[in-house]
Amino acid sequence: xxSQKINIHLAGPRGFCAGVDRAILMVEEAIKKYGGPIYxxxxxxxxxxxxxxLKKKGAIFIDELNEIKDFSRPVIFSAHGVPKSVPKxxxxxxxxxxxxxxxxxxxxxxxxxxxxxxxxxxxxIGHKNHPEVIGTMGQIKSHIYLVxxxxxxxxxxxxxxxxxxxxxxxxxxxxxxxxxxxxxKNKFIDVIEPRKNDICYATTNRQNAVKKIASxxxxxxxxxxxxxxNSLRLVEVAKHYGAKKSILVENIELFNDELLFKINNIxxxxxxxxxxxxxxxxxxxxxxxxxIEVHEPExxxxxxxxxxxxxxxxxx
Length: 316
Description:
This protein is an alpha/beta fold. Helices cover 35% and strands 17% of the residues.
């Protein structure tokens, strides 16, 4: 007999951002227009559910372009962005390619190109080996100083009077990044900041939504992926802002419900690369074993929309 009652506190907004929506739509529209298979370099977004769904529709995921077996088929680059060497390689192979890089990531690419022309040293706040960071660092030939934590600034041996600039990965912790920016300004006198915050609106909104409800949650569950920066940051934010425990759930079917023993209040969200259907399916799974009451505070809906290339809209 079901007896344990659990309150689920939903964070909002949650789930797909505009850049993820655009990237997935580009793959789907390419399959409609050209038929399968369509090649996709790297995971289009960091979410296994999305990747598996696109595979069923006709997408083949590869790590490098030389893995493509049929060069007559189109290829799409992931939402995280790619170094300039990748489209150049695609052109050398006579590949028909589409770039699904999020426009907010492309904005950062243009920023560092501009800074290189001005010959200003650039600091990139981000995570080493993340696809977005690799793509950003591959936009210019000049050296970029990668900073993951404040201590990394000690490795930058430039005069404090040297004019420098910084940009950031789009999916970082807002709080941690502010601390690093503060440290940069303490180290250097003349610092050029991005014209607009590089951390994207969706990352900021999802972290703020978690902050609002974390303190009332005994456990906070983030539906996302282990290789997703924005997913991992949400787990950290929930813990930092008062959740007694916070975890990342990649496969909802494998969730260990023993974690909910004597738990009354759960926080629940989905990262910017995880679809809302996973949230709703997770709630359905819990309803089979518990008395569930869902609480969702009012929040401002996001109305950001990024258009796909015109060439992909012309479905035959």
